[in-house]
Write a structure and sequence with these properties.
2 domains, UDP-galactose 4-epimerase, domain 1, binds uridine-diphosphate-N-acetylglucosamine, 7-stranded parallel β-sheet
Length: 343
């Protein structure tokens, strides 16, 4: 099958990662149709490049109608609720949206004959890992309902595929950060929760201070360690995986990270270096559902696709994130942080 010109459904395509993935696909000649309920994303000028259907991914009939009318050949399924602390407070809401959404999607695929699905999963399926970096063979033992809901989605895809359903590509994201290098998209949710986004908003004076959640973790400096991956690099992995599946390739499950971890304090120091001054920080108790350390073993990803990330540098991620937050809030970027500095 010729991939270019094919129509891909991107659920959650108005979200932070979904928009970047939709753009990556459009730039490589695919037609993109987005289904998104706009609950955690918003339409940006760049969405004019896609057909956008505002709707809930749990509505199977809607998905079937979109798939049939647009001639969808594959799906990137990203629509989901994604906050760990929120999932601890509202587990049933998370199972409803994330498990229910994936169920409806797979039923719609079965009804319309769609044979390839790329699924957004998460490193949170591993839970509190004993080994670092963690590879894809590690046990699935999520520490919070968000991770559990994604683990169930993975299982549903595997079981459906074994029964003749779509071939799948499961991507376990580690910590996605940064923004489109050309600043066409980035995170838009009004409330920032993720570390790099919060730190950038503090650096821009949009929030008073950064709270460090836990300084007694069993890590090198007592703060949580994560593997931060640039959103544009992650989007490229989606395209490569989709091309693999459209070419008839086998189902595959991949970690998505760079294979090296930074502590909260190291991230704060990186932002401070980029903006050239200290950030106001405050030590706070551990956050519910958090784990000490999550770093990806990336051998499968790099070997499978000969993938070489283009933005695997914390300072670049921070610069893109800072410039995006400044543009979003319509405030000037910090002196010395200029688009020209972007990699
Ligand atoms: C979590 C999931 C991840 C998922 C992501 C999606 C886990 C272990 N990870 O990322 O798989 O893709 O949500 O939403 O479940 N921190 C602070 N202060 C802040 C914000 C964060 O200290 O204001 C710390 C956290 O405690 C953590 C690190 O920074 O140690 C990263 O947190 P965050 O950016 O929120 O992402 P995760 O919770 O790791």
């Amino acid at each position: 099958m010729h991939a270019e010109g094919s129509t891909i459904l991107v659920t959650g395509g108005a979200g932070y990662i979904g928009t970047q993935v939709a753009l990556e696909l459009a730039e490589h000649g695919y037609r993109v149709v987005v289904v998104d309920d706009l609950s955690n994303g918003r339409l940006l000028p760049v969405h004019q490049r896609f057909r956008v259907v505002v709707g809930d991914v749990r509505e199977r009939e809607l998905l079937m109608e979109v798939m049939a009318s647009a001639g969808v050949v594959a799906v990137v399924h990203m629509a989901a609720s994604i906050s760990v602390p929120e999932s601890v407070a509202d587990p049933l809401g998370y199972y409803d949206n994330n498990v229910g959404g994936t169920l409806a999607l797979l039923e719609a695929c079965a009804a319309t004959g769609v044979k390839a699905v790329v699924f957004s999963s998460t490193a949170a399926v591993y839970g509190d890992v004993r080994t670092s970096p963690v590879d894809e063979e590690a046990p699935v033992a999520p520490a919070n309902p968000y991770g559990a809901s994604k683990a169930m989605g993975e299982r549903m895809l595997m079981d459906a595929a074994a029964a003749g359903g779509p071939r799948y590509g499961i991507l376990r994201y580690f910590n996605v950060a940064g923004a489109d290098p050309a600043l066409r998209c980035g995170p838009t949710a009004p409330e920032a929760h993720h570390l790099i986004r919060v730190a950038c908003r503090v650096a821009l004076g949009l929030e008073a201070r950064l709270r460090i959640f836990g300084t007694d973790w069993p890590t090198r400096d007592g703060t949580g360690v994560r593997d931060y991956i640039h959103v544009a690099d992650l989007a490229e992995v989606h395209r490569l995986l989709l091309e693999h599946l459209l070419a008839g390739g086998d189902s595959i499950l991949l970690n998505c990270g760079y294979g090296r971890g930074f502590s909260v304090r190291e991230v704060v120091a990186a932002v401070e270096r980029v903006v050239g001054r200290p950030l106001p920080v405050e030590e706070a108790p551990r956050r519910p559902g958090d784990v000490a350390e999550l770093v990806a073993a990336t051998r499968r990803l790099t070997e499978r696709f000969a993938w070489r990330p283009r933005h695997a540098d914390l300072a670049t991620i921070v610069r893109h994130a800072l410039l995006w937050e400044a543009q979003l809030a319509q405030v000037p970027p910090p002196a010395g942080v200029k688009p020209a500095a972007c990699g």
